[in-house]
Every structure is written in C-alpha cells, then in structure tokens.
Specification:
heterotrimer; A alpha+beta (205); B alpha/beta (399); C mainly alpha (85); A: 205 residues; alpha+beta; Peroxisomal Thiolase, Chain A, domain 1; 7 helices; globular; C: 85 residues; mainly alpha; Non-ribosomal Peptide Synthetase Peptidyl Carrier Protein, Chain A; 0% strand
Chain lengths: 205, 399, 85
C-alpha cells in the first residue's frame, strides 16, 4: 500500500523565557520564574481565559503552546477533529512534589484538591481539549527523551486510518523551573514534510 | 472484522494472584475490600481498599529479586502479571519476533518515594529508589524481567491508561509494526492517591456501590494485569490458542472538566461510538457491558446517560461493575477488566455487580446483581480517566 | 462580621487564584458559583479545605457546601455560627 505523505503545518517551541512560532521568535521576557513568564505571555497574546491561572505549570506550558498553534486553526462552528498525542519525561513530577509536601507534614496536614487534580500528566491535554472543545482521540506517553520515531509513527497511523483530520503532537516537559514545550500540528497537506529527521531537527533548534 | 488475537493473560489483584484465582473469586462473590495493611496511614480505619495481601518482601521473593533491587511495588506486581501473561501465551523466546511492551501506570514508583522521602539524606541505602520513581521505570523493569529488548513504552492517561495500551497494541499489530505485544497496566496503592481521592471527596466510607442511588464513592485498589496480543500470522505459524479477540476500540476527550465527567457523558458516548465503528458491530450485538462504574455520584450518572444514549434505555444489555471486588485500580483498571471480559467470553458468564440495592432515580438501569450464565459473543468495556480521557474496548469470541 | 467578609473575599481571591479580580469587585451577595465568580467543583473542595484549615470546621459531605458557599454573606454567617478557631 502506498501511504500518503503527511506534513507539519505549524510548530511552536517554548523554552528559556522565549516562544518561537514556526522558527521565529514571537515573545521573550526576562522573567526569573515561569509563573511570571507565563503570565506575561498570557497578557501579551491577549488570551482571555481566567482558568489559566488555576492550572499547574505543566498545563500552563502546554496550554500556551497549543493556544498559539490552534487559535487560527479552530473553527468554533464545527467539530474540530484534531487528535492530541503528547509525551514527556517527568510526567507530572513538578506538581506531584508540591502535593507530596502538603500530605507529608502531620502537624499541618491540609492536602489541596486543586493541586491533586494536576498530579497526572494528561490533565494538560484535558485543559487544551476543554478550551478548544476537542473531543478527539488523546493520549500521553512517558519516554526517557523525545522519541521522534514513536511520535511520527503514531501521528501517521492516526491520519492514515482517518482517526483524525489533524494531530497535535507535543513534548511538554516541566520540572522545577526547567521546561521545554515543542508542539507541532501534523496534517495531510502542508509545505514541510513530516518525518522523523525533520521533527528531530525542529525539536533541537 | 476479525480483531486482534489475545493469546495470553496474567493478573494479580486483591481477589487473586492468578487468572484462575480471580475467576474463582468472581464466581463465588468473594470481594476483597478491606482495611489496608501494607501502608501505614492515618486513614487506614476510615477508608477501605482493595489490597494485594503480600508484603513487598514477599513480592520480591516471588520474583527472586536480589537484595539490592530498587523495584517499586508497582513494578513488582506488574512484572508478576506480565510474566504470567507471557507464560500463558506459551512464549519461550521473547525476542524471536518483533515484540513490544506497552505498560500503563499513574502512580509509578510513588509508593517507594513516599516511604523513603525523609530518609534519602540520612540513609544512603534508600537513594536507589529515587530512580524508580518515574513512570517509565516501571515499564523498563518489566521489560527487563521478561528479557524483552523490543519497543517499550509507558502510557499515562489516568484511569483509562490500560485501555489505551490495549488500543495502541492492537493498532501496532494491525499495522504490522509488531508481531506481538504485551499490553496492560499496573498501579500499587499509595498514600498519595488515597489522600488525593479523599480531598476530592469521592472515596466511600464503606463499600463502593456502583449504579446505586445511594452510592457514596469509590474504594481504591491495587492490581496489575497484562494481555498478549498477536498477529494472525503468528497465531497460524505457532498454532496458538486464541482466548478472545480485541475487535473494537475508541478514545475521545470529554472536553468538560479536569476531573468530573460531563452531564451527558459526551466523551464516553463518543468512545463507545468509535469502538462500534472499528468493530463493525451494532449495539444490539453486545452481550455484556463491563462498565467503568466507579460508584462516584458523578461517574455512574454520566456513564449511565452515555450508555442510554448508545443503547436506548430499553435495550441495555446485562451490565456490571467489577470494582466492588477489586476496588478502583486506576491505570490498571482497564487491563483487570479486560481479563474479566475475556473470562466472561470464555466461560459464558456475566459477573455480578455487588453491593447494589436501590436503582438510580435518573434512569431505569439495573445492573446484573447475580452470576448469570448465557452465551457471550461480545463484551464492551468502558474506562474513563481524569483529564477527560474516555476509552472503550470491545472483546469478541474467536471463531 | 464585616471584617470576616473582607477577610473571606481576600482569601478566596488568593486561594483560588482569581486573576484580575479585586476585593472591591466582590459584593457580599454575589453568587460564588455559576454566573457570579464562576467557581467550579474543585474550587468548592478547596473552600472546604479552607473552612477546616482556617476556621476549624470539618464538612464530610461535599453537598453541604452548596448552601454554605452561595455567597460571601452565607459563608460568613455559617463560619460565625460554627467556627472553632
């Protein structure tokens, strides 16, 4: 069977206080903390979504990148068939640690439900799905490092078997102020070819 | 459509340490929701759980691990279940064909992290457990125990994780990327999850009562289960016995709330609909639904409404939740219930939904409350996770 | 009572991360859930933790929160009647 080629429509990277979209820097700040950086980015792009401030860091990171890729992509008047395939290394460790601290002190034992909610990595996918009303297939994987082969295969299978019209793939890693998001939208049409090598190059940029 | 062959399975749960023991408990109404013994927690008297009554040392001995091992409890029970599955499938030389492992977990090595959290600085001998915290470590350890060198990956989509592992495995077989794949999930009990679910106020203070009007929440449980999926070429070549087939699967996002399910179960509805599309089956062909049925007020109402939408209120097949037996085993739940679905097909039996007394006022849905013998061709199994991740798998008899 | 209401407003804004809302914006009888401040079920659970932590009031059934958390007014009245610290 001759399989159709797939393409990368757009891609977005967030790391070191900088956001790049399709390779070009679109936002930079000199923040010391991610909380500050993410707030400035939110304000800069006029994202009017107060729930953003209730999210954990991993969700904020994924949400921001998805927002920039999807804001011109989503047509609210119809069903948007975009699958989400995400992965990272540390799962929800950053929030797990915060939560663990809240239950480990017997004298001051008040675990927070709002923190516990985010002790799963796929909650960030949920946040994106809620914002953009995506009811399509979604999954979250854990790898030692960015696995371009796995991601490429998965996105292709979804497109070839018509399980989705587009696939939003993402690596979203956050632990202790160290972070990197690399999200890209894969479709049946486009200019940049979707293959393992190109994904790898874009990730490492 | 024929579906992907299941050729082996293994399980360890609160109601048994093997497939046979689990089946015997299901037949004899032997539920296992008890006071927790292996973890010291202030909640032990207040919140009952589905616990595997083996200490970490007993599990380590069973696996013949060396004294300096750094296996988390999650990895140990996972390795035990995966080994059973591989043995059941009659696999002796695991790297002979393209073989993969897709393992689901949500807590990973949390049990060891919380046990030694305060000791890391004072007791250097505990430091080895830091590296076993990652979810990915569990899958790698299981692969090492199996001697597997092929593709290994970890899925973490909360309580639907193992269903997604089965779905991905079936796809990899269908697309020819793998010849066989071991799929399933494992999660051990941890203070982390007991406390967390308590803060969400969805833990029952007694025994979970799925689809009962007076249900008060879930009991957590721990378990691991794995299935071996193989391509038809492998089945023919090795003359394998097929236990049942994975004939359909679907996943959708509820896009409603971080933890709560939507009022009408949109995600659940879409997941079931997609599973029917893949299988080519119609709702009336389903003989038994193993519902997610966690017994939280929110889940059972949302799932029930979705089932009514798919099947019609008058045409709902026999259904039950097996969580009163095992507790809710989180990322492992869908693998546990996959084993039970295959057992239902093999033995032509519907397992009872224990602890049910009063029908819910919102709709006319009465679960099967006693063991029922009847021919079973197709079983639909639901699993829904936080983050809105909803999955359905359909299992069918192999002809 | 007046001081408690002001205190609650400030706490809710802080604990629930309500960005761009000031104490002055919240009226005593504004609905906290739904159309008012737009709080959701997780926020309600967080408020239950707050009652326990700051006022020594333990709720066992999340449904109890429904009446208590209607507005700042109802919350302050409940806390005044039931607080143990």
């Amino acid at each position: 069977m001759l399989e159709n080629k797939t393409y990368i429509e757009t891609f977005c990277t967030i790391q070191n206080n900088e956001i790049t979209l399709n390779g070009e820097t679109i936002f930079k700040s000199d923040s010391d903390l991610f909380a500050d950086f993410s707030k400035k980015a939110y304000q800069n792009f006029d994202i009017n979504y107060p729930k953003f401030f209730k999210m954990d860091n991993l969700s904020k990171l994924a949400f921001l990148a998805a927002e920039l890729l999807l804001k011109n992509e989503i047509d609210e008047s119809k069903e948007n068939d975009i699958a989400l395939v995400f992965a990272n290394k540390s799962s929800s460790l950053d929030t797990d640690v915060k939560y663990q601290n809240s239950i480990s002190d017997k004298e001051n034992y008040f675990p927070s439900p709002a923190v516990f909610v985010y002790t799963l990595p796929n909650i960030c996918i949920g946040e994106i799905s809620i914002k953009h009303q995506l009811k399509s297939e979604n999954s979250f994987f854990i790898f030692d490092a960015f696995n371009s082969e796995f991601m490429t295969n998965y996105a292709e299978v979804l497109l070839h078997t018509k399980k989705a019209e587009k696939v939003l793939c993402g690596w979203v890693e956050y632990y202790n102020e160290e972070y990197k998001a690399f999200l890209y939208l894969v479709a049946n049409e486009g200019k940049t070819e979707h293959n393992k090598q190109i994904i790898e190059n874009l990730y490492n940029k | 459509m024929k579906g992907v062959a299941i050729t082996g399975m293994g399980i360890i749960s609160a109601i048994g340490n093997s497939v046979e023991e689990n089946y015997a408990s299901l037949l004899n109404n032997k539920t296992a929701i008890t006071t927790i013994e292996n973890i010291s927690t202030v909640h032990s008297d207040l919140r009952k759980v589905g616990e595997i009554k083996k200490t970490n040392q007993e599990l380590a001995d069973e696996l013949q691990l060396s004294a300096d091992n750094n296996f988390s409890r999650t990895a140990m029970i996972g390795a035990i279940a995966a080994k059973q599955a591989v043995q059941d499938a009659g696999i002796t030389s695991i790297n002979e064909y393209k073989t993969g492992l897709i393992s689901a977990t949500s807590v990973g090595g949390m049990d060891m992290t919380e046990r030694y959290y305060y000791d890391y600085f004072e007791k250097p001998e505990t430091i080895k457990y830091i590296s076993c915290h990652d979810g990915g470590d569990v899958a790698q350890k299981i692969a090492d125990e199996l001697g597997l060198k092929g593709m290994v990956t970890t899925i973490s989509t909360a309580c639907s994780s193992a269903a997604n592992a089965i779905m991905l495995g079936a796809r990899l077989i269908k697309s020819g990327k793998l010849d066989r794949v071991i799929v399933g999930g494992t999660d051990a009990l941890a203070k982390f999850t007991i406390n967390g679910f308590k803060t969400l106020m969805i833990l029952s203070d007694g025994y979970n009562m799925p689809f009962d009007n007076d249900r008060k929440g879930l009991n957590l449980g721990e378990a691991a289960a794995f299935l071996v999926l193989e391509s038809d070429e492998m089945v023919a070549k090795e003359n394998k016995k097929v236990l049942a087939r994975v004939s359909g699967y679907g996943n959708a996002n509820d896009a409603f709330h971080q933890t709560a399910s939507s009022e009408n179960g949109d995600g659940a509805f879409l997941a079931m609909e997609k599973a029917f599309q893949v299988s080519g089956l119609k709702p009336e062909e389903i003989d038994y639904i193993n519902v997610h049925g966690t017994a939280t007020p929110n889940n059972d109402l949302s799932e029930g409404r979705a089932i009514v939408r798919v099947f019609g209120e008058k045409n709902i097949p026999d259904f039950s939740s097996t969580k009163p037996f095992t507790g809710h085993t989180l990322a492992a739940a869908a693998a546990i219930e996959a084993v039970y679905s295959v057992l239902a097909i093999q033995n032509n039996v519907v397992f009872p939904n224990m602890n049910f007394k009063t029908p819910m006022e919102e709709f006319n849905m009465i679960p099967q409350t006693t063991l029922k013998q009847k021919n079973i061709e197709h079983v639909l199994s639901n699993s829904f996770g936080f983050g809105g991740n909803c999955s359905t798998v359909i299992f069918s008899k192999s002809e | 009572m007046e001081a408690l209401k002001q205190e609650l407003k400030a706490k809710i804004i802080e604990v629930l991360n309500l960005e761009d809302i000031n104490v002055a914006d919240v009226k005593d009888d504004d609905a906290l859930f739904g159309d008012g401040l737009g709080l959701d079920s997780i926020d309600a659970l967080e408020l239950i933790v707050m009652l326990d932590k700051d006022y020594g009031i333990k709720l066992v059934d999340p449904k109890e929160g429904k009446n208590i958390f209607q507005s700042i007014e109802t919350m302050a009245a409940y806390i005044t009647a039931n607080r143990t610290k």
